[in-house]
Each structure stands twice: as structure tokens, then as C-alpha cells.
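Posted in: Structural Biology > Protein-Ligand Complexes

Title: Requesting predicted complex, zinc ion in pocket

I'd be grateful if someone could produce the C-alpha cells for the following input. Sequence and ligand are given below.
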Amino acid sequence: MKVLKIDHLGIAVPNLDEGKKFWSDVMGLKLEGTETVEEQKVTTAFLPVGESEVELLVSTAPDGPIAKFIEKKGPGFQHVAFRVENIEEALAELQEKGVALIDKTPRMGAGGAKIAFLHPKATGGVLVEISER
Ligand code: ZN
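-- Reply #1 --
Done. Output follows.
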């Protein structure tokens, strides 16, 4: 598989204002837009950093994956996403290597990206996303 770059870092925050307090007010990153992915019960806010982005993740429902994450672990780093050249090829290669996957086929993420998550038990505890756009 060809990994092109770190696409974004996903950071779970209780709400956007709370997230902006550090990432915008202290770090000076500019919020360039938000997008709600209903299927995932999440609103993502993009703060570009060079070739990558910080992506703040805000739950839109108390039973969404980000709400559950915050309930269990508190707010903070949630996942890292790598941009790959071809996500279908990458998933086939990962399966061939016996890597546990949360998504065996790509689904649609924010920004029209095709995304898939690897299982943290296969990555040493890090939730890894691969994306193609
Ligand atoms: Zn992501």
C-alpha cells in the first residue's frame, strides 16, 4: 500500500467552543469548516496544519461513537488518519496480512473521502483510519 501523508488527527471534544479554546485561541489554527456525518453522529471541524489537518470531533447524539468515547476515556486524541493512494488496494493488502479491520469495505467520510478504520487491537492500541480522496 502506498501511504501518502498523515491526512488528519481526530480529536474528540465535548463541543466546538471547548475545542477552539486550545486549538484556535492558543495554537492559532484556523477553523476552515465543519461537516456533519449523520451516519456517524458526528460533526467534524477542520483546522488545517500544513499538508494535514486537526479534525475536531463533536458528537451530535448521546449514543454516538464520539459521545461514548468521551464517556469512557474523556476528551482527547481519538484517531490518526493516513491518506493512501488506493483504499481498496490498501484494504485488500491489510486483509491479506491478517490485520483486523473495523471496515472491510470503504465508507464515505467527511469531505467526500472514502475511509476505513483498522481495529486498534491490530495496531498496538491506536485507532487508525485510512482515507482516499
Ligand atoms: Zn478521521
